[in-house]
## 1
Amino acid sequence: MIRRLLAALAAAGVAFAPAAAPAQDFPPTMPAAGTPKPFTVPASETYRLPNGMQVTLIPYGQIPKATVSLRVYAGGLNEGEDRWLSSLTAQMLREGAAGRSGAAIAEAAAGMGGSLGVGAGPHETSLNLSVLSEYADNAVRLIGDVARRPDFPQSEFGRVRDSLLRNLAVAKSQPQPAADAALAAAYYGPRHPYGSPFPTEARLKGYTLDQVRAFHSTNFGARRARLYVAGRFDSAAVKQAIELAFGDWAAGPERLRLPAQPQPGPRLILVDRPDAAQSTIRIAFPAPVAGDPSDLQFRVTNALLGGAFNSRITTNIREKRGYTYSPFSNVTWNPGEAMWAFNADVTTDVTGPALKEVIGEIRRLQTEPPTAEEAAGMRTYMAGIFVLQNASPGGLINSIANRDFHGLPANWLESYIPGVLAVDAPAIQSIAARTLPLEKMIIVVVGDLAKVEPQLKALPELGNARFERVTPF
């Protein structure tokens, strides 16, 4: 349309001359960041049904929508040797419930303005539905039917299981899942569910619908469930719907807890991928647990070291040296423990130099505090990201559910920004020195070992590491 308009004006004899752009410096001077504002969690109501199920209602925002999220503490931790059985069960939940087909369930959710999401992780199965405000009570009832009264239709079972088999085949063909599996086994040990995240193809192919039904009946119950509703909704109508949908749910078992006992290094785990153009790298250390006195200090340290796009490691091996495209570090928190991990895919020929630079950045942060300006920038960045993450009903539910999952204090979310802003440069250096001891790191490298292993053996930083070749799948 714009092109046709310009052509017509040109045909009419209208001439266009480019406007003179005002002279300016490049890059322009960026405005100074403002002072981060405190974050206040909206007033909420939490109560418990007689059967033990907990409910949190959070009136929030101005948009006429509501998010309903049911978290059931039943996931990979509850599978025993049957890896991905919880995922298979979760996918089967929405294939039919309370006499409605999967298509009818999807149609009902769409009629409310949303779509039902169901998924399983290491610790929980979640059911999520965002709808127009006037349908919040109906959304509660629909989630109640799907979670409590699944039909588990035999006609859909083969298709759902085959989809997971395809996902498994894809994962086994890629270096990143291989690195993740090798790291998990080395760090947690293959006997703990955290240490064995993938099933064998034969085991997954052998699962039956009876096993799915048994997993659901054994692990789903009111005492393991927490329901969150956030957004704009009629509180009285939603409470009535909750009582009708969940009030007679059997209490079921208490939440399962299987504390992990991480096994730090030094270890160097190698996975051969002949002729690979890149090497996939993982470096892992134990990290402070969620809510630990040093937790927030470590979060800021992680952002500065590798967790933010302008972190030191990213600036070094991506921007300065061009070894990789998207390196990053993150923290995984489990009940009672946590793991810091660095992740990158680097060109094969610079695998050793890239590792040398990453280790060098860790060592530099342990021996030299960052500048006050650098520390302040990371604090401001983290405070801003936190506010953005909690700017929607779904994001706020995730934060509150995470707080509840880890048993953190009720004011933990309100104290997050003040706690982050209190982390100064000396504290960052101190926590890096205490929590990232190079003599205890685990390194995983997936790549062409004929080219990579000589590079690694030439690094003085790996002189005390034990080289081990493994096959993760």
## 2
Amino acid sequence: MQVLPIHTGANAQQDSSSGKLIVLTGPSGVGKGTLMQSLLSRYPELCYSISATTRFPRTGEVHGKDYYFISRDQFKQAISQGKFLEWAEFAGNYYGTPRESVLNHIQAGKLVILEIELEGARQIRTTFPNALSIFILPPSFSELENRIRHRGLDSEEAIARRLQRAEIEIKAADEFHVQIVNDDLETALTSLKEAIFDKDNGEK
């Protein structure tokens, strides 16, 4: 397990002027990960921020590529040292965005995209008021439940918790600049592309 570097530069608000931060969120099972992978493969100019988490890696996940997998003690130490731009607890595990790499990319004038949970997205709104925020919606709640069940990753108890949380999260969709329904992958990707590369977005 690796320890995250300590950020010693200026605060996020000051560093945000020369680049652009894009925040992507939505309920568990809505397809954020699939959309993100497709988006990054088509638009390599986007910088994906790798999150840190205390959960165990899933099959095929690689440390430093999918997530930084660290212990709960390491995560709590990183919180106390101010190493996270945002962090939240979800489904019994901690998730957070390492501060230093994000600020460095933004300062270099790059487009940085975060795929994070609702609580973290709300934190980013305070730190980066000009960030573009995008909420991914399912075509229906029943379809969201089907997607979560078909993943085969969770127990019935965990599925129930995810669905309960999803109801709360979906109600927050109007807080975001852009809402995109992930019904058809290509249609959703087109909407994402338009939102991210439209210079008027994020200025509301």
## 3
Amino acid sequence: MKPLAYIWLAACLLLGSLSAKAQIQTQQIRDDFHVLYGPGGNIGVYTGAEGIFLIDNKFAPLSEEIKQAISQFSTDSINFVINTHWHGDHTGGNENFAAAGAVIVAHEMVYRRLSMDNFLPLYNSRTAPAPTGALPTVTFTEDIRFHSGNETIHVIHVPNAHTDTDSIVYFEEANLIQLGDLLWTDGYPRIDVQNGGGSVDGVIEALQRALALADDETQFISGHGPVPPQGQQVVRNYLMMLRTVRNRVVSMIAAGMNQQQIINARPTADFDADWGGSDPYIDADMFARILYISLAK
């Protein structure tokens, strides 16, 4: 089992500091929507009638490389940045893009989290308050809509899911939903179940809400990993995995098993081939530990 001393956020910041060696890969999803991959969380780029909407922005050292990647398919200004949640691999570029003229938009809890010192015991990780220039300038409590030409961008808060700051970003005309870290397609998810305010039940409820907005043609954008070509089915499979392992852990807790016994019982075993991934911070043991902490309380 990987030791708890792995410091996930610090490792992400280290990756960000290596931006000179990083490359941002671009994938076109729709005529007016691209996804940018690379160190940190995935970025959605919508090129609309009112300029560019950026969904998340990775780490601060990557901002210029991100702008360069965008310039290959659009010369429009980046007018809005929407944060799906507060983690630094999704909000690290806030200050840079705000300084360049973008309006930073996020749930009110993103503002609060970025404004404070945060300690996540499960990862032995501490983050200092962000500078004022990195804080969202527009916040909302439940949802907010943007209208750009014939596109409506509906940003919907989902409580206590991956964190206590998460939002779904639904492009109604394009029929596209960016889920942030509610969906990981390259392995088991990180859920901040201690001081981060997240819960596995909240993730399940958030994905159910997203699927209720979708049809067979909806494209889903994940927070980490490749965008799935058959989006709805991948989300359904992911949701089934979460429910199944969650129910197993609930039964084990009810039977009196402690955290280590549940980890040793391998409740994820039949899913490891598909979801085990290669992330050293979220292996099957850590995911079982996360579920135990989420459900035991």
